[in-house]
Specification:
Layout: E1 6-10, E2 12-16, E3 19-23, H1 26-34, E4 39-43, H2 52-56, E5 61-64, H3 89-105, E6 109-112, H4 114-122, E7 127-129, H5 148-151, E8 156-160, H6 165-170, E9 174-177, E10 183-185, E11 192-198, E12 203-208, E13 215-218, H7 230-250
Parallel strand pairs: 1-4, 1-5, 5-6, 6-13
Antiparallel strand pairs: 2-3, 7-10, 8-9, 8-11, 11-12, 12-13
């Protein structure tokens, strides 16, 4: 266990039975441990004054998780509307500067769903909301079923860009993914490369080539099926391999 890399995992601020919690679904932690082969360490949403550098000195990679909340549109220059909600300002104040510091340090990064969107916003891109209402777009929202397996069921195909990071990781030109979002990348941030798209043109995966290490964002949720779906496992395995390399350098 002492030789395993340590991976920082972002959390949300949630109110449960009148208590304010910092939490993330256990599927992320299980995927980091079982599929990436790393020890997960949860980071509470402590805001922009937090000493990120002190924490990043001690970890070998970062997973920016999905969430029910959305990035506040003021973060990318748009007036908020009911369609942009719900929000988690404490998370925004933590994850956006965190992402920039992670990339500056060239630490491995895996950004999932909201994290994928945060990666775009952190680097200067914008988001579109309620994309199911836009002409020609699919409905990417979660299915209206009660059980969690049904909500995270594999639902639609994404086309993988040949020769890119995701293509090298999975060896595939098309992946079947789940879908639980109503926002998506609008204007792509400078420095990001598109790695996969849905049939309706939605950007489903991006990478950051300039880091020289694993830095991938995906709009779907590979953590949920990381122990049974081969491409999902491959994404976490590739992230874990990069984290082990970072750990060797740190030591």
């Amino acid at each position: 266990m002492a030789d395993l890399p340590v991976v920082l995992v972002t959390t949300d601020r949630r109110i449960v039975e009148e208590s304010v919690l910092s939490a993330t679904p256990s599927k992320y932690l299980e995927a980091v441990f079982h599929a990436a082969g790393a020890v997960p360490l949860q980071l509470p949403p402590l805001g922009g004054d937090f000493d990120f550098e002190a924490v990043l000195d001690r970890v070998d990679g970062v997973v920016v998780t999905g969430a029910e909340s959305n990035v506040h549109p003021s973060r990318y220059g748009v007036e908020p509307s009911p369609g942009h909600a719900p929000f988690d300002p404490a998370r925004d104040a933590t994850t956006l500067p965190l992402v920039r510091r992670v990339l500056n340090r060239r630490l491995p990064l895996l950004a999932i769903c909201r994290g994928h969107q945060e990666l775009n916003v952190a680097l200067g891109g914008t988001l579109a909301t309620e994309i199911q209402s836009l002409p020609g777009r699919m409905d990417h929202r979660a299915p209206g079923v009660a059980d969690e397996d049904g909500q995270f069921a594999i639902r639609h195909a994404v086309t993988v860009v040949p020769g890119g990071v995701l293509a090298r990781v999975t060896g595939e030109t098309q992946l079947m993914v789940n879908s639980l979002h109503r926002q998506a990348i609008d204007r792509l941030a400078p420095g990001l490369t598109v790695e996969a798209t849905a049939a309706d043109g939605t950007i489903e995966a991006v990478s950051v080539a300039a880091t020289g290490t694993f830095a991938l964002g995906v709009q779907w949720h590979p953590e949920y099926w990381a122990r049974s779906d081969a491409p999902s496992a491959m994404i976490f395995a590739a992230f874990g391999a990069a984290a082990r390399e970072a750990a060797a350098r740190r030591r």
